[in-house]
């Protein structure tokens, strides 16, 4: 194998794969991905895919039991875990490597570290080192890792992180989940559905604290119905574990765990730490370039180029812009396109060469129960930016399509509207299966579609998308 390519990408997750593919497509350029674990990255094996594979059966059973005439569905825990393993290919990345090779991307196994302009040293699993060079560009796509708060005794207790929770091979009898964000809420849902008693220890006063307040409230209400014990304004003070043991990913890591939180001692079989992510930049050799990182994240311009180094790019979580796989892939498509244009001496004219969406137009979904799908700014965030906004909300349970989906459908939707321009700057949907609603809102936000125009986007009946009409009616606009 050569030691020189036109483009070298460090990190083989979806953003890294996209960056490499877009940088060479339709050309004779060469590319390599340097990956220290599995090609396909966190998303494919430890995050998006296994978590959604665990949540979907839970959704289906819940939906069935909410329909008169269908009730009685149950989860087969072993079957659910087997299906999850099918989606992660039992951590075999040969199909991903095969795809990379089929589009002209080589895979270099090992840990990559920058040692000079367009130069990296790769340390293999056997400790041997190899120097490789890029003719045009190096792309950093190493993502983030789970943060473990500096709580006395916590790290020594060998707690589960998100990797263990998504790849669980045994269901603990009782679990304490530290955190109240997306990862914490999703894990709480499937752990409870699979039979664990779940206690959530949340430092703040709301679940999904960056969401609209009505979304946080509905999720908390549903968690109470599910029997998930959520404790707000609680900090874990110390942790101790009897006989901690590295029993393997997704297996209970030893004996009972004692947690002192809010002055109370809680005894559980396992602890899941879901308290945020930290950028995987510590061993990339960025000090050799004199880069100053912002809280460990690599700053980039809207071409995804690292300022002062026109050959160096960063995409995905490592940029700190939006820690979401789909946004990392979006950034990677832009970076790859920019690399190709620069390699061919073409100008970077037009929006395709710029990251636009990361400027207040990010869509995301928390696949908990209920789902929370949103795009753009919340009301609070919009007001912080000085935007004069108005909001409108509507009960999704009063939409015919939603009530047909399940008996007693509970949900809510809200829009954030810029009064000056009369366009949406944010939207939030909460309820079962609302994830598919967010793309229409994303188009409206990114396209700056006037609210008056949305009146003429007629929703099919009876579908949940009729919520758009109900929201406009609730605002009190006429159809002119």
Automatic annotation (TrEMBL):
One of its GO terms (molecular function) is flavin adenine dinucleotide binding. Keywords: FAD, Flavoprotein, NAD, Nucleotide-binding. InterPro entries: Class-I_Pyr_Nuc-Dis_Oxidored, FAD/NAD-bd_sf, FAD/NAD-binding_dom, FAD/NAD-linked_Rdtase_dimer_sf, Pyr_nuc-diS_OxRdtase, Pyr_nucl-diS_OxRdtase_dimer. It comes from the Bacteria. Binds 1 FAD per subunit. Residues 6-327 form the FAD/NAD(P)-binding domain. It comes from Virgisporangium ochraceum. GO terms for biological process: 2-oxoglutarate metabolic process. This is Oxidoreductase. FAD binds at residues 52, 112, 317. NAD(+) binds at residues 179-186, 276. Residues 362-468 form the Pyridine nucleotide-disulphide oxidoreductase dimerisation domain. Its cofactor is FAD. Belongs to the class-I pyridine nucleotide-disulfide oxidoreductase family. Disulfide bonds join 43-48.
């Amino acid at each position: 194998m050569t030691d020189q390519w036109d483009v070298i990408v460090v990190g083989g997750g979806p953003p890294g794969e996209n960056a490499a593919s877009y940088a060479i497509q339709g050309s004779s350029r060469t590319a390599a991905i340097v990956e220290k674990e599995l090609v396909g990255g966190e998303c494919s094996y430890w995050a998006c895919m296994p978590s959604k594979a665990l949540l979907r059966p839970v959704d289906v059973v819940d939906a069935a039991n909410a329909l008169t005439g269908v009730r009685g569905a149950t989860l087969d825990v072993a079957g659910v875990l087997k299906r999850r393993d099918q989606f992660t290919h039992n951590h075999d990345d040969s199909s991903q490597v095969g795809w990379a090779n089929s589009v002209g991307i080589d895979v270099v196994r090992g840990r990559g570290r920058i040692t000079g302009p367009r130069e990296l040293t790769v340390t293999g699993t056997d400790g041997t080192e190899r120097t490789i060079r890029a003719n045009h560009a190096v792309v950093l796509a190493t993502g983030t890792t789970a943060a473990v708060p500096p709580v006395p005794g916590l790290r020594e207790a060998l707690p589960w992180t998100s990797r263990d929770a998504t790849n669980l091979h045994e269901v603990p009898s009782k679990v304490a989940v530290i955190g109240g964000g997306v990862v914490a809420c999703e894990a709480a849902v499937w752990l409870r559905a699979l039979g664990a008693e779940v206690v959530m220890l949340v430092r703040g006063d709301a679940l999904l604290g960056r969401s609209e307040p009505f979304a946080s409230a509905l999720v908390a209400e549903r968690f109470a119905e599910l029997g998930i014990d959520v404790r707000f304004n609680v900090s874990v003070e110390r942790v101790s574990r009897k006989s901690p043991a590295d029993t393997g990913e997704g297996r209970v890591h030893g004996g009972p765990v004692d947690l002192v939180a809010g002055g109370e001692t809680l005894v559980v079989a396992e602890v899941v730490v879901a308290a945020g992510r930290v950028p995987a930049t510590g061993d990339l050799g960025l000090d050799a370039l004199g880069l100053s990182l912002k809280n460990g994240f690599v700053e980039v311009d809207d071409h995804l180029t690292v300022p002062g180094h026109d050959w160096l790019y960063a995409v995905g979580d490592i940029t700190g812009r939006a820690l979401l796989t789909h946004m990392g892939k979006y950034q990677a498509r832009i970076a790859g396109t920019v690399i190709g244009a620069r390699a061919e001496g073409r100008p970077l004219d037009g929006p395709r060469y710029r990251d636009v969406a990361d400027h207040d137009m990010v869509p995301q979904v928390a696949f908990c129960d209920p789902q929370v799908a949103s795009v753009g700014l919340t009301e609070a965030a919009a007001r912080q930016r000085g935007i004069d906004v108005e909001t409108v909300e509507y009960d999704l349970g009063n939409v015919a399509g939603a009530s047909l989906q399940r008996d007693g459908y509970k949900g809510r939707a809200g829009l954030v509207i810029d009064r000056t321009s009369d366009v949406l700057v944010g939207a939030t949907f909460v309820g079962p299966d609302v994830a598919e609603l967010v793309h229409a809102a994303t188009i409206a936000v990114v396209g700056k579609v006037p609210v008056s125009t949305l009146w003429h986007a007629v929703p099919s009946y009876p579908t949940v998308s009729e919520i758009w009409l109900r929201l406009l009616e609730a605002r009190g606009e006429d159809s002119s």
